[in-house]
């Protein structure tokens, strides 16, 4: 059994897209891979049912996805989990989340756990995402923006992960907007130099996410640097 915890330097850096690309990549290689989103805020009602946007993206890759198995808490308010939970009268059972991860790890070859927001996003008023990551104890894939401003955010995130003694598998940068390529290339070099953590690569700007999910081999040069890909999930 193997797994990764996918986190980001901030909200909306592309964690779900990267998680879904990884899901597609390993799935097409014949690996029994499964996604898990412990807490999803910003859920919406569709056809009378509460739906999680991140889960819907996973379903584009795994059409047989059991969303009840892939998510423990669905919250309507698009905010930090602690605030959404407070307003919706929800209390997060952290041990239950841990047990769900353990169950999935026992059932599948590879589990991709996606966090909410960045590292210091509160889950409860005195408990942040990084605390959950430490308890789940999976290697972390850190997703950051490729463009201007990412050095500061990414290096600070790595510093926090190292201080918490959390293993970092690598960094993936995501080209959210068409920006100066020379800046983006230098960002990757400087992040690696300043942190000592490998930058696995940069996801190009995606004009068609659906097409990207169908052709995950296009990201072979990035994803084949992961230990899980090198080991082919051998037990």
UniProtKB/TrEMBL annotation:
Domain of life: Bacteria
Gene3D superfamilies: P-loop containing nucleotide triphosphate hydrolases
Pathway: Cofactor biosynthesis; biotin biosynthesis; biotin from 7,8-diaminononanoate: step 1/2
UniProt keywords, alphabetically: ATP-binding, Biotin biosynthesis, Cytoplasm, Ligase, Magnesium, Metal-binding, Nucleotide-binding
Binding site for ATP: 12-17, 49, 114-117, 174-175, 204-206
Regions annotated as coiled coil: none
One biological process term in Gene Ontology: biotin biosynthetic process
Cell location: Cytoplasm
Pfam families: AAA_26
Function of the protein: Catalyzes a mechanistically unusual reaction, the ATP-dependent insertion of CO2 between the N7 and N8 nitrogen atoms of 7,8-diaminopelargonic acid (DAPA, also called 7,8-diammoniononanoate) to form a ureido ring.
Protein name: ATP-dependent dethiobiotin synthetase BioD
Gene behind the chain: bioD
